[in-house]
Amino acid sequence: MEQLRDKAAIVGIGQTEFSKNSGRSELRLAIEAVKAAIADAGLRPEDVDGLTTYTSDSSQEIDLARALGLGPLTFFSRVGYGGGAACAVVQQAALAVAAGVAKTVVIYRAINARSGRRYGAGRRSHSASADGFDSVMSWIAPYGLFTPAGWVAPFARRYMHEFGATSEDFGRVSVVGRKHAARNPDAWFYDRPITLAEHQASPWIVEPLHLLDCCQESDGGVAIVVTGAERARELTDRPVMIRAVAQGAAADQHMMTSYYRPDEQMVELPEMALVARQLYAAASLGPEDIQAAIIYDHFTPLVLPQLEAFGFCGRGEAKDFIRDGHLELDGRLPTNTNGGQLGEAYIHGMNGVLEAVRQIRGSSCNQLAEVEHVLVTAGTGVPTSGLIVGRDG
After folding, report:
1. Is 260 a catalytic residue?
2. Is 296 a catalytic site residue?
3. pLDDT at residue 323, rounded to an integer
4. Is 192 helix (H, G, I), strand (E, B) or coil?
């Protein structure tokens, strides 16, 4: 995807408040977030001619367009696999802009994941006419694997067995996320850090996952405006360039633990490694060129193999990388500076893209010095995606 490098840029971001009970529909949340993003870009609703979101988003494009007074739509698309779409929707927008299919594309995601459908509940009921997902689930549901936490737990246990990682190693991810969230006024856990002892004392959900290994269920909406690079420079003196973006699904992919892969891959994320190879090649960058990362943290154990897949440490070494403090603001790779999904909110990873934009703009609540490139990853254990954004010039 070298052809996409710096062809498109992010010029606007918007969000609602993040809560546990928004008190309004997901469509209303989407409208508020998109309106804010368009205003942030210095554009008008009628300037927007493209929309993209997740297949799981409940807000129809035409309803959003009608409510906001958007221009005629020449492009609209959706990406599947839940949080795996978090960066793929940026790819959709960049592809549309680079191909000239649309001039201005808005990405949106709005969910009532706490007050509405509880995303942590998984799927327990099955209709008489099962869809494809239910058919696949029928092979694992009899073993009690109903929920995302249940799907991740076997991977986490195998990783611990192979590399000597401990529950405390997973807990350090949560502690850092909450530490960063405590300084973020928009975060649900603002001013509420935790200690490793508190992590260890939190209830078991599915061993080896404690409650504080699991991300939040949140209500909220976020939106992003993407346009061509030249137009972006006319709109702002600090466009956030889409340096590289990629998708990846690996052999024998499953949801969310790929149970049938060879033993050596049972502690890896081959789909994330595929995304990493594409991103680095497309951007002509390597791990040494990344100053910060927004790592998808729906469950803490899956942060570790992501660090390894992107080359920030060797196979099985992520626990040591984290123990040495490298995810901290003064570490080698400051991670989830907004608090991530553990500390800020769970908006299916899209709020992480907003934080990457803020770091490049220089407006983060935990702003880092001399940030040139930020990596963003999407959902793990599923077909996924990744993104590198950077400064112009």
Report:
1. no
2. yes
3. 98
4. coil
